[in-house]
Amino acid sequence: MRRRSQTILPDQNGHRAMSREQREPLGRLPGTTEPATYYGQPMIKRPTWKWPIPLYFFIGGVAGGAALIGGLADLLGGGRYRATVRHARWIALVGAMISPVLLIADLGRPTRFHYMLRVFKVASPLSVGTWILSAFGLTSGALAMKQAAEDSMLLRRESRLGRVARALPSRPLAVLHVLLGLGLGGYTGVLLAVTAVPLWAAAGLLLGPLFLATAVASGASLLALLATLHGQAGDADRAQVEQVATVATVTQLGLTVAREVMVPKTIARPLHSGLWGTIYRVSAVGAGMLGPLALRLPAQVRGHRVGRTLSATASTLALVGALAERFALVEAGKQSAADPLAYQELTKGAPGAARPLPGQQAQSAPASAPFQAGQVAPERTGP
């Protein structure tokens, strides 16, 4: 039988139209039978963040979590946890110094960071976060200077500058450190949640608390690791921050499970397969959450202190897991932005249904008499 040839005519713009057989494969992802998209092209712009951003999310989170714990220990401890307060102040200072460097490295020019401080927009998490980081740096510097004078380290206790530093009000600065630590630990999750990236926007209400829980868990783990270095003198402080780390890790794991349930499989695909999916499951969830709980909980349930070796191992795993979580979520989010099917799942939009066809527009248009010269057009009563 002679095969009937198919004639393809140019469209109204002069471009050669494509047959259904030519057009349909371009709308499918490789190796899938998903519904056709707009030629398989991404529907939103892929984020251009490089490695300094997830590293900033990690370092800023550790500094914010440590500041939160150290401030509460200073306010509520009555001087019993001076080692924890001291370590938290130095961790916060180091984190506050490194974080702007990482942001500027991603922005490309230092002036761009300065430009973000020229305005303050409550509705913009990026603007609010920039001011939180700046205020956190100033507060951390003041508390670190006070701590240096009290310890006669870098500043002599009875020098003029040392007396000025020791005179700084401790309690107001501690309250401010707690609030700024909360903001620094959680605002990065809110920043991701308000974007159009499907993996970040889906169940975005949980992303800010998840980042905050990870920040507290990693900050407490670093404080416990530093307390381990002091031997028996730091066992009491280590036991307290390890309890905080356990509560934060349980919260972190619960929020992770909740996001897993709420995020559709089409959107969560980058966290279920591929390199970053493996890193997320093995390093972030397995080593960073389940590992520390398995090492700490048995002793804590019995009311015993965790051994120093187990404590150091659990703290290291928690820090590695927090770093892996930040990198995995950012890189998997980039893959999610490049998947048009994930964006369609997020917005619940069917391909081609965003704008009605001309025939559908004509059917839905209200009936009216033809326009005649000299007549006033009737007023519209509908929307």
Brief rundown of the structure:
The protein is mainly α. 41% of the residues are buried. Mean pLDDT is 81; it is low at 1-36 and 349-353.
Q: Can you characterise this structure?
A:
- It contains 15 helices and no strands.
- The chain is an all-alpha fold.
- The protein has one domain (52-343): Up-down Bundle (Formate dehydrogenase/DMSO reductase fold), CATH 1.20.1630.
- Helix 9 (207-228) runs antiparallel to helix 10 (235-262) and helix 11 (265-272) crosses helix 13 (308-337).
- The N and C termini lie far apart (58 Å).
- Mean pLDDT is 81; it is low at 1-36 and 349-353.
CATH superfamily: Formate dehydrogenase/DMSO reductase domain
Largest sheet: none
Label the structural class. Answer: mainly alpha
Q: Enter the CATH topology name.
A: Formate dehydrogenase/DMSO reductase fold
Q: Mean pLDDT score, rounded?
A: 81
CATH architecture designation: Up-down Bundle
Q: Return residue spans where pLDDT drops below 50 for at least 5 consecutive residues.
A: 1-36, 349-353
Strand content: under 5%
Cα Rg: 28 Å
Order of helices and strands, N to C?
A: HHHHHHHHHHHHHHH
Total tally of structural domains: 1
Choose one word for the global shape. globular
- Distance between the amino and carboxyl termini: 58 Å
Name of the CATH class: Mainly Alpha
Q: Helix segment count?
A: 15
Helix content: 55-70%
Count of distinct strands: 0
